[in-house]
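User: Please fill in residues for this 524-position structure.
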């Protein structure tokens, strides 16, 4: 009987990390044959952008990478802005460029570390390429089940667009939110979001452009604005030596010195390396019925500026920093939660279709739980999936090796029941964890306030009341209280009942009073 064979469809982050885990394990435990099929060509030009990784990703790294590989990967993580030592939790501003909330002070928001997605993918793929495990240019089309010689055994045959195929014991479908395996299995829990439009953009960051950006972005590295049911998220990745210099601009009391990076006419310092500097922007708004040609619109920057016409002018500098070919428009896909018993349910509907709900085809990452990007948890959950999948796969390989050592016929192989028990271990861990984050990231809601932690609902309500109170004061020529709404005020909830007194304690470290951050001013 040949070694236990795992076929991985998709060489992205999750697929590549799991392949590393199987390769590293087979060198010390039971033999495992691993092969990865990736649809993109090896020399495909990719648009690298930054993602933020946290403890969920670390679970996957620790499970799948060797100590040497993990150490090499850690060195790939850059710093983001001046406060990289505190992670990259975003700063929340309003459309007037007023500071509303520093998320790093909010315990429910998971701080994380930024890394370029393509740097991470290349790092994970490198050891696989050295071993000849990745096959590029292989577009997955479908799979079929091949019955074994013994009752209750089978294998999976995968087919590719170029006419080639392969056979394995288990297929890991890490083929993203347009997963064909998800569809063929009968899961079919992924849907397009039609209620919102938007774009993702990444561009280089010359010194001259840096000087035009809001200084809050430079100081913090990660800034978001929520207004009018629109969300603008921006991240500046600065050269490490330059960012280190910004972090050194603290006095012993923790206040930054009164100088401005954005002051016009200042020449770039020696530590500025334009090759290491980049700007990433994600902007979304409710679907505009008059903008049916958004994906092919010839002047996307003008459209974005029109959307933020009544916002602070500094936001336009972010749009001005982009070129037309920096802007990418894609379809946002999200998932509906599935129960742990979803395979049994779909099999009961089509009992004669052996491909539906088959336990030898496992779904990983966005192939089963794509989510909104508001919490940066999509990649984190996919990487965590690898830790949950690795252990049962190794256990199955050990069973196969024991059977081979006991002299069983080559045709017998692992029973489908054994594979299903291994799958259940994986899905019992993955499904509740991942779909909890799908929900926490906003589910399929078109309301951007639903994309953030539910505890922030109170903060948004307080801020809306503060702005309403300020507007009323101005209308009656009354002077608003300093800082707007005080934390000691009694607030009414949606049902008219006073909000819980715990608000004072829970938000005692938050400065709700707005701080105006004009371009060129020091962010304090």
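Assistant: Residues filled in for all 524 positions:
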């Amino acid at each position: 009987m040949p070694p236990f064979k795992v076929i991985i469809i998709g060489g992205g982050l999750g697929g590549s990390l799991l392949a590393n885990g199987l390769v590293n394990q087979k060198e010390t435990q039971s033999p495992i044959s691993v092969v990865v099929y990736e649809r993109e060509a090896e020399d495909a030009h990719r648009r690298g952008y930054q993602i933020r990784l946290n403890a969920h990703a670390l679970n996957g790294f620790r499970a799948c990478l060797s100590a040497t590989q993990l150490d090499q990967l850690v060195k790939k993580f850059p710093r983001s802005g001046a406060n990289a030592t505190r992670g990259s939790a975003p700063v929340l501003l309003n459309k007037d460029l007023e500071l509303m909330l520093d998320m790093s002070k909010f315990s429910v928001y998971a701080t994380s570390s930024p890394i370029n997605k393509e740097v991470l993918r290349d790092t994970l793929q490198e050891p696989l390429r050295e071993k000849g495990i990745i096959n590029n240019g292989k577009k997955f089309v479908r799979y079929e089940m091949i019955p074994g010689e013994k009752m209750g055994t089978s294998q999976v045959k995968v087919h590719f667009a170029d006419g080639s195929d392969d056979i394995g014991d288990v297929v890991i479908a890490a083929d993203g939110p347009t997963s064909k395996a998800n569809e063929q299995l009968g899961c079919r829990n992924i849907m397009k979001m039609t209620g919102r439009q938007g774009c993702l953009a990444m561009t280089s960051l010359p010194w001259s452009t840096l000087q035009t950006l809001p200084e809050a972005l430079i100081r913090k590295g990660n800034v978001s604005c929520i207004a009018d049911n629109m969300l603008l998220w921006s991240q500046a990745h600065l050269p490490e030596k330059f960012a280190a210099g910004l972090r050194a601009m603290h006095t012993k009391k923790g206040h930054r010195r009164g100088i401005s990076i954005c002051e016009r006419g200042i020449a770039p310092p020696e530590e500025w390396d334009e090759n290491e500097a980049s700007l990433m922007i994600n902007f979304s708004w409710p679907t505009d019925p008059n903008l049916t040609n958004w994906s092919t619109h010839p002047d996307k920057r003008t459209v974005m500026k029109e959307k933020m016409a009544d916002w602070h002018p500094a936001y336009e500098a972010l749009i001005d920093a982009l070129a037309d070919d920096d802007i990418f428009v894609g379809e946002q896909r999200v998932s509906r939660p599935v129960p742990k018993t979803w395979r049994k349910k779909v099999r009961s509907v089509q009992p004669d279709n052996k491909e539906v709900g088959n336990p030898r085809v496992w779904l990983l990452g966005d192939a089963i739980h794509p989510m909104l990007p508001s919490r940066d948890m999509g990649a984190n959950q996919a990487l965590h999936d690898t830790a949950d999948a690795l252990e049962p796969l190794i256990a199955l390989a050990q069973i196969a090796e024991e059977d081979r050592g006991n002299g069983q016929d080559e045709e017998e192989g692992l029973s489908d029941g054994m594979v299903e028990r291994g799958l259940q271990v994986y899905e019992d861990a993955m499904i509740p964890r991942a779909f909890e984050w799908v929900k926490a990231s906003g589910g399929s809601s078109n309301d951007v306030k639903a994309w953030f932690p539910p505890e922030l609902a109170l903060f948004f309500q307080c801020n809306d009341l503060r702005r309403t109170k300020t507007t009323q004061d101005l209308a009656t020529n009354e002077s608003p209280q300093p800082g707007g709404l005080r934390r000691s005020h009694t607030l009414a909830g949606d049902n008219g009942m006073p909000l819980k007194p715990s608000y004072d304690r829970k938000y005692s470290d938050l400065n709700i009073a707005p701080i105006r951050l004009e371009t060129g001013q020091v962010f304090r």
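For context: The radius of gyration is 26 Å.
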